[in-house]
Structures are given as C-alpha cells and as structure tokens.
Amino acid sequence: MDLPPTQAHERPHEKYQRLIAAAHRLPPITVAVVHPCDDVSLQGAIEAQKLGLIAPILVGPPPRIQSVADRMGIDISALPLIASAHSHDSAAKAVALVREAKAQALMKGSLHTDELMAAVVARDTGIRTERRISHCFVMDVPGHLDPLIITDAAVNIVPTLEDKVDIVQNAIDLAHAIGLADVRVAILSAMETVNPKVPSTIEAAALCKMADRGQITGATLDGPLALDNAIDLAAAAIKHIVSPVAGRANVLVVPDLVAGNILAKSLSFLAGADSAGIVLGARVPIILTSRADSLPARLASCAVAALVAAARRGLTANRGE
C-alpha cells in the first residue's frame, strides 16, 4: 500500500536524524574544512567530528581559526591544520588536498561560495569531472514523509536542457545514496501541460522522454508539473493527472536558480523546514552550508556527504562492510 506523503506526529528533525544515523554506521570521511573562521562553521565541523561523521582537516589562517576556537572553548590542538594566507588560498589548498587524495569531501566555511567554487572548477587545478556541477538542497519539511530534494538552487543560474540532464542525474544519484529506493522526479513549471510559450514545459517534456530512452537513469520522471501537482495527491487528482510521480515526488527539479532559491527559502521560513546543502558533479561531494543553517542542518549536510562518498566507493551504511 502506498504511504501518503505526510506524517502527522514526527519528531523535530526526524528525517535528518535518520540520515545522521545511517552515516554514523559508516567510517568517518576525511573532510577539508575550508576557511572555518567563524563560530558556526567551526562548530559544525567539530560537532560532526564528535558524531563520527567526519575527520576534519582545517584549512585557513591559523591565528584566526585559533581565535574562534578559544572564544568558543573548543580544543583543536589534535586536529590537522593546513595554514593559508586568506580565503582564496584556503580554497585552493583545500582543493589540492582532494587532488592529492588526502580528503574525501570539502566543507564550506566562512568564505563566499563563489570563492570556493572558483577553486573547484579551475581548469588546471580544480576537481571537475565530465558531469555538470550542481547543487541539491535536502529539505526536512515538517509533515512530509521523506527528505525532499530540490535542485538546482545555488550553482546553475539559467541551466540549459543539456545542463539539466546532469542536474537531474546528480539528484537521482544523491537520492539513491541517502536511501530513497523509489526515486520520483518532478520537473517543475507553472503548469502541467506543455506550452510552446513556456520553455520550461518543453524542457520538462524533453527530459522525461530522455529518461524513457535511457539517457537519464535510476528514477521515474514526470513533467511538466506544477508544484501542487508534484507533491499533493489531492491536487493531482483534481487535475486528473495519472502518474507514479504526481503527488508523490521526492525530487523537485526547478526551472532555474531563482525559482529554486525562492522555493527552498519559502519552505525554510514559512514552513519551518531545514535545508542541508551539497554540491555534486565534482570529484568529491562539497558540503555547502549557509550562516543561517541550524546545527541539525549542518550535521545533516555532513551526513549526506558521507553517504554520497560511501555510495561512490560501493560501501553500505554498516560499519565494517
């Protein structure tokens, strides 16, 4: 029997706690924490270490990091620390640790996202792959049964159809890594019918046909779908939409960055959702958090990165397997 997409009596952060518990059953991953020069970024890394999710390597100016640690009463004397001169240098040295196979993930600290991503995508010294790099929010929405993945709301501003193929595939791979066996992808637009005057509806239809032909794998796709038709069974029924995705989507692919950013922040600030952030498509997962993120969201971001790294190595979420 299909479960409804909501649950009435869940505990706060229950979905994130499930992700953290799954990641805890894996060996901790080595994470280069890039420029952790403020309270929230250093605390997030230390708390994730305490939970056994990551083994952090701090990358940044030692006096600034030590000053933050002293102010917070945190002992970092046992942690490896790679000295850098400034934030751009921190990003470059953290990426170098990945290239040297000394780090299995990156974690954004108190530098701008653009600074970190510039080092990641640098032609000669970066860590790009053949995949388009994209961002996913893993949202813990109160009353919603499963984690809800939203992509792309932070990296690709106006992605092309070709870009969206990788954006969708990255999200599908992420969904499997965090334990969603039945991945249902809704390609969002403002309507559920194809309209030549609305390019996002045409791209949605094309992506679904590409999935039918095996160009996108690992999930069931449907679109275009309006948001209500994607996540609410009653709304889909009113529109007479017969689909295994409509009303039950667990991955939402937005038309562009602006739409995705508004959707994710609306869920956070109007519906009380938390948002774990991760960048995919590079050689390693990149934990991308915001200063406004709660500690559970930061820990969940680390857990998601650990699960992604494990999936790439073919590990299961059981220590020792």
Structure in words:
The protein has 321 residues and is an alpha/beta fold. The protein has two domains: 15-128 and 282-321, 3-Layer(aba) Sandwich (Rossmann fold), CATH 3.40.50; 131-276, 3-Layer(aba) Sandwich (Isopropylmalate Dehydrogenase), CATH 3.40.718. Helix content is 41%, strand content 17%. The chain has helices at 14-24, 39-50, 62-72, 87-99, 113-121, 161-177, 199-212, 227-231, 233-238, 257-271, 295-312, and strands spanning 29-34, 54-60, 81-83, 105-108, 134-140, 148-151, 184-188, 220-225, 251-253, 274-280, 286-287. It has an eleven-stranded mixed β-sheet with strand order 3-2-1-4-11-10-5-6-9-7-8, sandwiched between helices. Strand 7, helix 7 (199-212) and strand 8 form a beta-alpha-beta unit. Helix 2 (39-50) crosses helix 11 and helix 6 crosses helix 11.
Topology:
Elements (H helix, E strand, L loop, with lengths): L13 H11 L4 E6 L4 H12 L3 E7 L1 H11 L8 E3 L3 H13 L5 E4 L4 H9 L12 E7 L7 E4 L9 H17 L6 E5 L10 H14 L7 E6 L1 H5 L1 H6 L12 E3 L3 H15 L2 E7 L5 E2 L7 H18 L9
How would you sum up this structure in a few lines?
By secondary structure, the protein is α/β, with parallel strands linked by helices.
Q: What count of helical segments does DSSP give?
A: 11
Q: What's the β-strand tally?
A: 11
The quaternary structure here is: single chain
Q: Estimate the strand proportion.
A: 15-25%
The number of domains is 2
Helical fraction equals 40-55%
Radius of gyration based on Cα positions: 20 Å
Fold-level CATH name of the largest domain: Rossmann fold
Sheet/helix structural class: alpha/beta
Query: Quick one: overall form?
Result: globular
How confident is the prediction overall: mean pLDDT? 92
The CA-CA distance between the termini, in Å, is: 32 Å
CATH architecture of the largest domain: 3-Layer(aba) Sandwich
Strand order, sheet with most strands: 3-2-1-4-11-10-5-6-9-7-8
The biggest sheet amounts to: 11 strands, mixed
How are helices and strands ordered from N to C? HEHEHEHEHEEHEHEHHEHEEH
Q: What are the segments in which pLDDT stays under 50 over at least 5 consecutive residues?
A: 1-9
The CATH class of the largest domain is: Alpha Beta
